[in-house]
Amino acid sequence: MSRILVLLTGGTIACEKTSSGLVPSNGKEYFKNLLKEISDDDFDVKELMSIDSSDMGCDKWNIIGNEICRSKDKYTGIILCHGTDTMAYTASALSFMLQNINIPVVLTGSQRPACEKDSDGYSNLSLAVKTVKSGIRGVFVAFYDKIISGTHCVKTHTLSDNAFESINYPYTAVLQNGKLEINYNSLFNTSSAFEYSNIADSRILLLKLTPDMDTGIFEYILKSRFDGIIIECFGLGGISFKFSNTVKCIEELIKNNIPVILLSQCLYEKSDFSVYESGLLALNAGAVESGIMTTESVYAKLKWVLTKTHDIKTIKNYFNTNFVGELGN
Questions:
Q1: Catalytic residue IDs
Q2: Is the pTM of this model over 0.85?
Q3: 156's torsion region: left (phi>0), alpha (psi -120 to 50) or beta?
Q4: Which domains does the chain have, with CATH numbers?
């Protein structure tokens, strides 16, 4: 029999309908009863917070991470019930915070409240239990019969039960005929010891390039002293430059010790800023490209890296290092 810790944070899975809309109000006792229906394993349930996941952020990640770190040696695995809207951000953040963890940490939730008859909450929670019992190590998202690596998970649908996809990386496992079929080749293997770190709060701006964008935004970024900038560029690695000073603005940010991380607006396949002239100019100016990483993973990794250093060259080295499989396997 497995001993499993279930941590509650709120989200749709815990919601009830009220006159004010859906509110996360189902807590510890509700989930204890629900888990009894799913499995006869030994569950401990702890409510860390009860929030809409739109309110999830760095301070909440540290609360969750600290609880997992304190509890990891007492349990077969840990399930984190979380709202779907920012689940991919939290999964990425916990992946960097809980490096080389020796148990499964599985995030799950639902598109409709678990208390509703047609909810996907019951099946997703059951999938999370199966994932914990499989013994695979690391941080994962369990949703709609699929297990996704924490740093490759993206929410792609607003209503569908099939809400998440694994981007540029194979699924860790899929549920087939009631059995979890694990792709062991997808697991990021390391012999390094467990390492935990909180994430310090930092001011990061995510900027999406658009045609004819007013580059005055970069003056604001510089004056406001952001700690880091993430820029979603065009296609494989395109940046406006013939009739725009965007690349010069990027260079100015870097000269002022503000790291600039580049990625593509395209969801699938890698970015490569060395192919086109504008991208190469940005790289030569000191910008960092992120390869196959998702926006959520880049954001979480930059938050984690800025906790350790603000040195541009060191940050670049960190982004070129594959810590938890974020760059592939």
A1: 12, 84-85, 155, 276
A2: yes
A3: alpha
A4: 3-196 (3.40.50.1170), 204-319 (3.40.50.40)
